[in-house]
Amino acid sequence: MHILHVAARPEALPCRDEEYQRVMRAVEELLEEGSGGCVYISGVPGTGKTATVHAVVRELKRMAEQNETNPFTYVEINGLRLPEPSAAYGLLWEAVSGHDAAEEGHLKISAKESLKNLTRHFGGGKRMGPGGHACVVLMDELDQLMTSKQDVVYNFFNWPTLVNSKLVVLAVANTMDLPERVMSRRVRSRLGMIRINFQPYTTPQLEMIVRSRLEAMKEGLKGDLQDVISPDGIKFAAMKVSSISGDARRVLDICRRTVELVQPMKRTARTEDVRDVIKVMQNSPTAAYLRDLSFHERLLLAALLKCMKREGIEEIKWADVQHQHYLYLGVLAGNGDSTRNPTIGELAYVLDSLLASRAILMEDGAIASRKPDGERRVLLNLEQSEVERVLGEVGGQAWKNALSVS
Ligand SMILES: Nc1ncnc2c1ncn2[C@@H]1O[C@H](COP(=O)(O)OP(=O)(O)OP(=O)(O)O)[C@@H](O)[C@H]1O
Ligand SMILES: [Mg+2]
Question: What's the total number of domains in the chain?
């Protein structure tokens, strides 16, 4: 179950050899030339984009340690985890100026100041980077950094191309056309961006991904071991997933849950078991409950999820959820949804109904009740991945993008 978990980090990534090599060659070349550049990686969720870039960076770090390539500083910026898009500037400036945030904490300067520093730095054509090293940046979930002015995304595409920038940006997004949306054709051709699209996985590929994880596990254990799940069962799961999304996370999830279900019986999971699990995942009481929620109830859950991902914690201040709710209102309201800003009092009603059904829990007790409402923390009481999936299904593409699900 552990090795099938999406959080497990396998040594090798089957079916992504070609993509791995292309990213590797591109970055290696830029490091060797001592120049900068942008590699744009697109693909729907769960196609191994982040995993591939991580594998490349791990290998490059190893190479740099052995003097097989030039040393570089590495920084990871994740669009989902930033309080707002312009916060990316601060993180990049820390990396470029050689500030060690892990040791000394974040720099206390505004996004505006960071932007000014970066513009001066890259515009000056001189490198004051840490030891003149190149800086490799993974800009993950770039879609989340799109603003109406598109300036953040534009800058991250543009800076690597300035003379002597020594900035290598690995931009990862779900959509293929971000460059088209933020830049004119003329600018695009000047940038000479390298573009790699990750196709959704096919049935045999998804089978391979699950089987190779299990086989790697088996090799490490001695003795004649019974399979935890039959080859047919894996194939069935792979088929189901590839017909909808080609998302490796989904197939790993289904197989893990199937193994979990069958494990007490100490037998190999079969196709029927996989079928049962898929049915349960589709028709769970939670899914049915979520589908019946009102627009603002769903929006509030989406806002809570966004805050959880951004802050990396589970308990979120009610005021932060409210703020995100208003931000999402403009983005996620579809045909027939009311886009009128609800009052804080109305939002409290929405929260109350979610509290009543225990989809959300709120900090309680004597101390909490003395706090102002906005300071009290709320907590999602449902399984996060399931809420994301169902909200995405109900809300359509804009919701899927916002929640980062396929
Ligand atoms: N080729 C592969 N072999 C083994 N595991 C894989 C492979 N591709 C993806 N995975 C696993 O699937 C999960 C999702 O992969 P990853 O996070 O790289 O997707 P992604 O394309 O970055 O998705 P998103 O757009 O949602 O960020 C991870 O647990 C990863 O280890
Ligand atoms: Mg990713």
Answer: 3
| pLDDT tens, residue by residue, 111-131 | 999 999 999 999 876 655 556
Write the CATH number for 376. 1.10.10.10
Domain that holds residue 212: 203-283
Checking DSSP bridges between strand 37-42 and strand 167-173, what pairing results, if any?
parallel
Cβ of residue 333 lying under 6 Å from some atom of ligand 1: no
Question: If you measure from the C-alpha of residue 176 to the centroid of ligand 1, how many angstroms do you get, rounded to a whole number?
Answer: 18
Burial class (CB in 10 A: 0-12, 13-18, 19+), 405: buried
Q: What's the 247 CA to ligand 1 centre distance in angstroms?
A: 8
Residue 238 lies in a domain: yes
Can you tell me whether residue 53 is helix, strand or coil?
helix
* Residues 61, 65, 67, 72, CA torsion sign: positive
pLDDT digits (tens, 9 = 90+) for 267-315: 999 999 999 999 988 888 899 999 999 999 999 999 999 999 999 999 9
Atom of ligand 1 nearest to the CA of 16: 1
Ligand 1 atom with minimal separation from the 248 CA:
12
pLDDT tens-digit readout, 152-178: 999 999 999 998 899 999 999 999 999
- Phi, psi at 200, each rounded to 5°: -60, 150
Pocket test for ligand 1, best of 78, 249, 400 (most atoms within 8 A of CB): 249
Ligand nearest to the CA of 200: 1
Cβ–ligand 1 distance for 174 under 6 Å, the answer yes
Residue 378 CA to ligand 2 center (angstroms) comes to 27
pLDDT digits (tens, 9 = 90+) for 192-233: 889 999 999 999 999 999 999 999 888 888 777 889 999 999
Task: Check whether residue 247 and residue 375 sit in a common domain.
Answer: no
Closest-approaching ligand to the CA atom of 20 = 1
| Radius of gyration (C-alpha) of the chain in whole angstroms | 23
